[in-house]
Amino acid sequence: MGVKSAERVLEIFELLKEYPDGLTSKEIGEALGYAASSTFNLVKTLLDQGYLLENENKRYTLGAKLIQLGAYASSYLDLNKIAAPVLKRLMETLKETVFMAVLSDEDIVYVAKVDNYRSISTNARLGGRKPIYCTGLGKAFLTFIPDDQREALIERLKFVPITEHTITKKEELYDQIKTFKKLGYAVDNEEIEVGLWCAAAPIFNRNGEMEAAVSVSGPTERMRGNKEMIVNLLLQSTKEISEKLGYIRK
Fold first, then answer.
1. Which H or E element spans position 250?
2. Distance of alpha carbon 107 from alpha carbon 216, whole angstroms
3. 123-163, pLDDT tens digit by residue?
4. Distance from chain centroid for Cα 102
5. pLDDT-above-70 percentage for the chain
6. Quick one: which of 124, 122, 123, 142 has its CA closest to 132?
7. Euclidean distance between the first and the last CA atom of the chain, given in angstroms as a whole number
8. Which of 165, 168, 210, 213 is buried most deeply by CB count within 10 Å?
9. How open is the CA angle 165-87-225, to the nearest 5 degrees?
10. What is the dihedral of CA 63, 67, 73, 76, to 10 degrees?
């Protein structure tokens, strides 16, 4: 979809939010100054994808998929607001970089990053995506999501070696996951960036579902030397955030 089409889609959404009873394709086109044919094509595409609904009078309203997306966005906003002070305190205590990420298909997406001046430079950035099989955050998701979801994800993975330490076999990944389940956290040992070691732990919501993961990253030698303290503080922090989200451990 081109930029112009994307702009028109957003304009349609903005228009329809003012008309809870809906508008016809013709009315949408006239209100926005679009040609009838392009309006029809845009509306049909949005309808087919679930972003619009069509009633018995051929009038279009905002669809359920937008409600779902809004709910996701709202949950991320709530999550960031709740997690922010905890992540900041974790960074200030450990003097290492702290990340928080959510799951998106076969990737993790960074939704928070708290930098530290002395930590190793990393190419991970806010809003960026990284594969789940070679990041601590991704492996935390693979460890603590439901079994059927994990298996479906791993079956779809394409293992591309990013460093000489990157896992390239799913059997090895499954072995790691078994270990991580016992530990309560996951590890990336220079698998995404040489010289970078990372520990990551899950955040659960009030329904007991894994909502996000938090990691602490830094130079391999320094991180390993302080591993016990780092992991303990990481697990305390994710427990605190989970409890603030309403999670009660059974």
1. none
2. 18
3. 667 778 889 999 999 999 999 999 999 999 998 888 888 88
4. 2
5. 92
6. 142
7. 46
8. 213
9. 45
10. -150
